[in-house]
Description:
Blueprint: H1 14-33, E1 37-38, E2 44-46, H2 47-54, H3 59-64, E3 66-69, E4 75-78, H4 83-92, H5 95-98, E5 102-111, E6 123-132, H6 137-154, E7 160-165, H7 172-185, H8 192-200, H9 211-216, H10 229-244, E8 250-251, E9 263-270, E10 279-285, H11 289-292, E11 300-306, H12 307-317, H13 321-329, E12 333-337, H14 340-355, E13 360-362, H15 368-377, E14 382-386, H16 388-392, E15 395-400, E16 405-410, H17 417-424
Amino acid sequence: MSITAVKGFRDALPEAARLLSRVETAALEILARYGFAEIRLPIVERTELFARAIGESTDIVEKEMYTFPDRDGTLLTLRPEGTASLVRAYVEHHLDQRDAIGRFSYVGPMFRHERPQKGRHRQFYQVGAELIGREDPLSDAELLLALWDVLDEVGIQGASLLLNSLGDAQCRPQYREVLRVFGEAHRAELCENCKRRLEKNPLRILDCKEPGCRAATTDAPHLVDHLCAPCAAHFGRVRELLDAEGVSYELDWRLVRGLDYYVRTTFEVLGPGLGAQSAIGAGGRYDGLVAQIGGPQVSGIGFAFGVDRLVLALQASNPDVESEIAAEMAPELFIAPLGAAAEAAALTVARRLRQAGMRIELDGGRSLKSLMRRADKLKARHVMILGEEELAQRRATMRDMEAKQDRKLAVDIDLTGDELLAAVGARRSA
Ligand code: HAM
């Protein structure tokens, strides 16, 4: 039997890979304009990092991590997200001493043992941004603008931003208790999971997808009504700044997020074309996390997009994206040499043109007919035919595949790449 990929782990074939990197490149470019510098983090971390950062009783830590012992018995985990690793690196390298404010971006695979479906995989990609060392609402607003501008640059239309505040160590415990009492009064209507959550993490009863739980919590008290004065002022200012910039958002009191490190501003972005897995990105403030990982008491806020989901949202926003990608990948010129001497010359010409920046496909050892068939299949815009006879005259035949026209062209193989490029004149805008 042949060996297949592991369930939930997919290959990205060339077209899919190109879409993923198009999205990642666009995101990193916008993030760079906002001052976020890319950092590369390991895929494997000590398990305790995630247990401490994300929280022992979260779904991710309880049931979704890929954890295994190293040869010496140390428990390791394939990272389920990037924030914990980033903060670990920040603390480990004393990055606060380099600059009191750090802005970092990252991109790469993350791993969660979830039930695979459209837009949900066990290995997926994230592109994220973390801003450490600022606690003012201006930094929240700026980060949210960066997130919004990424969507714009990627070309996603019709996304919506959900916003909430989770309060802080002052006000959340009180709200938690208010909500727990509410939940206890509705205990009978809650699913088994939520009954357990009532003790450990009552806020999670608000975002349970079970219809019974949703109905039971319709009249639940809202956290935004229980914020302490500083949290309320912070959230008010963030909203004012977003309003002033014309960023529209919806307040979502059910948005509590599945990671324990969040305080104050939290958000999620829903995208088009995704069905059940519509969260294309999410994030929030994590003011206590750096200290919790053993670093200084500094604030942080960040977000991560799911790149696979951004791709789905892009496909829904732009039905032409596949053909754009195909055009970008097609050779600008197909070189068809006939015979040994022409093949050697073609190798030289192809290399010069490639060095000058042109996308060339070179093939040989077959009949003209079979070479032309291949050029056609590859959707090459132009073909350069180099026969023995043509070579003897230092000429080639250029065929415009769209116009179905031939023209003779002097190709002196001693020309430089740029001269050749000008002579070929077939450069198609990528
Ligand atoms: P998260 O909400 O767990 O947050 O994940 C962020 C995004 O990653 C989701 O909105 C989704 O688009 C994508 N994602 C998550 N799981 C999967 C999956 N199984 N398959 C495909 N895509 C997935 C975080 O990870 C936080 N670290 C975000 C953050 C950064 N908060 C502060 N800074």
